[in-house]
Amino acid sequence: MLSRDLLESDLQGQTRVLKRLAQGASLDEVLDTLVEVAEESRPEMIGSILLLDQPSGRLQHGASRRLPDFYCAGVDGLMPGPKVGSCGTAAFTGERVIVEDINTDPLWEAGRELALRASLQACWSQPIIASTGEVLGTFAMYYNEPRTPQASDLEFVSSSADLAALAIQRVRYQSEVERERAVLKTIVSGVPDALVSSGLDRKITHFSRSASRVFGYEAEEVLGRSTSLLYADSADYDRLAQEGFNPGSSEAIDLTEIQWRKKSGATFPGEIVASTIRDEDGNPLGYLGLIRDITDRKIADAKLAASQDKVVQSERLAAMGQMVSAIAHESRNALQRIQVSVDILRYEIEEGTDARDDLDRISRAQQDLQHLHDELRSFAGPIHLDTTMTDVSRVWRQAWTNLHVSRTGRDAQLNEAIDGVDLNCQLDAFRIEQVFRNLFENSLTACDDPVRISVTCRNVELDGEPAISISVRDNGPGIAEELRSRVFEAFHTTKAKGTGLGMAIANRFIKAHHGTIKVGNDTDGGAEFLITLPRKIE
């Protein structure tokens, strides 16, 4: 009956240890429980567990309930060897070591004094061996008198060491898993792209922090829901199911660009690469997708394309400039000869005749050609400024005067608000007059009578230096918002006539003066151009 009671006690004790292990108790707690149940099963026995530290190769204290503290401290850090007591020798050989009498056994020569001081007379030590054959430590049974083990004792010490090995390996495995999870979490958290995993039913099982940033959902909002909510077009969701998101597919989804939908409903372009998650046998478990928001790249590509278009346009304009320069001399001479001929004929042909009307039409055509010639040269040719300190009001007044033909028969007025403003600045009067001429011509074209053009000046600073601000406003319909960004583009025009170079030339002349010109609409209606010129040009 005693043997049966002992067997039942051992089994109950093992069950307690396994339960603690299943509950996720720490290694220290499990080993303490193992020693506790061993000592409860055999009250005269003193249990001890030493663990082999892999980096140092030394035995370290693992668990003990009844060994004196000085003894535990004395064996902590013990280096295994062929004659290092029971535990040191068992760890060294990987075999069970039975010492029935510490007083006389040569294995205890070095540690005998410490053991006797602790009243230890016998020690049976079983190495704790992993499934791989690696020695993990030792399980020892001490007695306060010389003692020979029974078969049940040997079985008990062996099963206790096996339990200890199971606990150590389990905790080590859990630690490795937790460490790998931490590393994986760090890696996943550091990936700027959205990482989304799903089961075979394509319901979301993992939604990374970056995925929350990209799509606007918190992970709790989407876990368990279909990945279809992330697709802007259900056709893409169905198509990818055929290409890779199905258990029968062996192919990964290569880099694919589609439209995605955020929680807000906004859509964005994104690239996805995906693959099937499989177990060790190759069976599909789910899917893993990496989604990159390429909105910024698309914008950059568009800007690059626009820049390339501008380069092409610049090259064309450069070629035009060379062409204009090449024909400038001949065309100018031809226009001058036409003008001279027209002036001579005016003396010979009477006014009021059909011939005089034809002559006037020839003259206007010649002036249009001259104006076109001047615009092309101003736009394509190099700018060489001839600047002096000038009253800028004299410049815009001269531009207004030179448009008397365009104003003939029109109710058009130029109003000024310039009191208290210093109107002097360093400028090329010829170039700036062309700027005002373009602005006034545009207003005369855009406005119905009565035409009212206002020029207002203020003293300001430009880049921290004294400057003058000149506002030119009219009472026309204004400029549509979507057209304002193109006002200064070459060849852009909203007029039936003209080259579309006028405002591009004006912008070029103002920049040559280190100034700025901006377009907007007056609060009372009509277009407004705001010119800022430095007082002095360095």
Layout of helices and strands:
Elements: H1 2-22, H2 27-41, E1 46-52, E2 59-64, H3 69-75, H4 85-93, E3 97-99, H5 112-117, E4 122-129, E5 135-143, H6 151-190, E6 194-199, E7 204-207, H7 209-215, H8 219-222, H9 234-243, E8 253-261, E9 267-278, E10 284-293, H10 295-348, H11 354-380, E11 388-391, H12 392-401, H13 404-407, E12 412-417, E13 424-427, H14 429-446, E14 451-462, E15 465-473, H15 481-484, H16 502-512, E16 516-521, E17 527-534
Parallel strand pairs: 12-14
Antiparallel strand pairs: 1-2, 1-5, 3-4, 4-5, 6-7, 6-10, 8-9, 9-10, 11-13, 14-15, 15-17, 16-17
Pfam families: GAF_2, HATPase_c, HisKA, PAS
Domain Histidine kinase: 326-537
Protein name: histidine kinase
Structural description of this entry:
Residues 326-537 form the Histidine kinase domain. Its EC number is 2.7.13.3. It is an enzyme of class 2 (transferase). Keywords: ATP-binding, Kinase, Nucleotide-binding, Phosphoprotein, Transferase, Two-component regulatory system. This is histidine kinase. The chain folds into four domains: 1-177, 2-Layer Sandwich (Beta-Lactamase); 191-297, PAS domain (Beta-Lactamase), CATH 3.30.450.20; 299-380, Helix Hairpins (Orthogonal Bundle); 388-534, 2-Layer Sandwich (Heat Shock Protein 90), CATH 3.30.565. Helices cover 46% and strands 23% of the residues. A five-stranded antiparallel beta sheet has the order 2-1-5-4-3. A five-stranded antiparallel beta sheet has the order 7-6-10-9-8. It has a five-stranded mixed beta sheet with strand order 12-14-15-17-16. The model has no long low-confidence stretch (mean pLDDT 84). Helix 1 runs antiparallel to helix 2 (27-41) and helix 10 packs antiparallel against helix 11 (354-380). The radius of gyration is 48 Å and the shape is rod-shaped. A hairpin with a 5-residue loop joins strand 9 and strand 10 (284-293). It is built from 16 helices and 17 strands. It has 538 residues and is an alpha+beta fold.
